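Class prep. Write one:
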Amino acid sequence: MRPQKQTYYRRIIIAAGVLCLVYLLLFIPESDAPGTVAVNRPAESQPFAWKQDAFWRALEGEFQQTRELGCTSARERIISQLFFLNHMIDSLDDRNLPPQDAFYRDLEAALFETAPLVAACPQHLNAFSDAVNRMRMQMKRQSLRWDMTQSPSRITLYRLLYGGRAAVEEVMLQVPPQFALQPLMMGVDEPSQTPWASILGVKIHSGDMLVSRGGAATSALIARGNDFAGNFSHVALVYVHPKTHLASILESHIERGVTISSLQDYLQDIKLRVLVLRLRADLPAMAADPLLPHRAAERALERAQQQHIPYDFAMDFSDSSKLFCSEVASAAYRNLGIDLWMSLSQISSTGLRRWLAGFGVRHFTTQEPSDLEYDPQLQVVAEWRDLETLRKDHIDNAVTEILLDGAHIGEPLHYNRFLLPLARLAKTYSMILNAFGGVGPVPEGMSATSALRNQWYTSLHSRIKRRLEVQVQNFMNEQGYMPPYWRLVEMAQAIKSEFGQ
């Protein structure tokens, strides 16, 4: 063989060897050690569980029976039940009860027992929705006197606020289109002296917070993945210019970190629901400075304009050098003496901690978006939701619920290891783009392995969801109504078992 050919083949062999070596180096899994310490810390609480399966089945039976008997025969009973529910809510006007009082469990029972009757006879839906809305206002007022760091306070408020929303939404999903509620539900028109703008028929003020639920599988995971499963996955802070009345929305995205967007851009992202929260005007700090929310939003805006703020995957709300979505609001207000999230979120399940550590989370006592609603310092101003997105929300939640059940019992969060070298190359490319202000395929601050775990989780969620949507449609064709949430969870669990997961 000629020397030139020998040299040529030698170079090919060396190049192939180098490529193989690089591939093998890129194939080496990263250590999960940083998450192990956080995961093994003693849990400070226990996940909330309703533990009322028999009750939910009985309520569905009540719904079916009322449908068969007809609304004429059920009319007097429904009116009586609504009267009793409203009477209980009105009685809170001049009462200040501790969270352990048995009255609240009686109120909860009246709420849930009324729901299936209204679902069968939807002409009473508006009255039921109004009652639940007033109950929410009363419970927010009652909780002002409670210690929200204590478990009884948190549980009572959660059972009635989350439970009230769940009851109304179960009814909404059953009613014919002509009885459907309007997408906008108004809450308390809390007075504010800060600049305002209009969004979908509602005045939003500078310093308001927009709490929303995204349409991605990971959005459902954020909403449901803590000790008190919630409905929201994202928090944004509103700034309104005092002269132009143009609103800017400050939020932190996994892909880009903190961003400033217009209302139009904010609404273009898929949102299954949006809640408007506003600081109470009667707080001492607000009485001393009514423009405090505007100043908080203004400072947050100025910082975002002056520097790039990465996303905080660790969820460390005590360090504001990086910000996850909740921190955008909490850091802005903390700088002016207002501590939001009077009751911090706990993630006590060891299995779920391991999952979240696999995504980069390092702090499991933190500020979850859903829990901001339960802060007594804030009033609910308005909420948007409609039937189409509500069905998607419930199906997403059911799939997420059974995946989280797997996490709780120790099922691992997988990823395709054979894709790790490619993911690491994508991460390197992303880091180069990040250095020049761009956005790459792997978010800044997320490891290549975490990105693959996210891909695996999203894929599994989508597969189960597609099958569940077919089964839901079949159920509706056969039974004539949307399966209630507890049935969705059972159906999703059966599908997951079929997949061998």
In short: Residues 448-479 form the longest helix (32 residues). The first strand starts at residue 184 and ends at 186. Residues 53-181 form one domain.
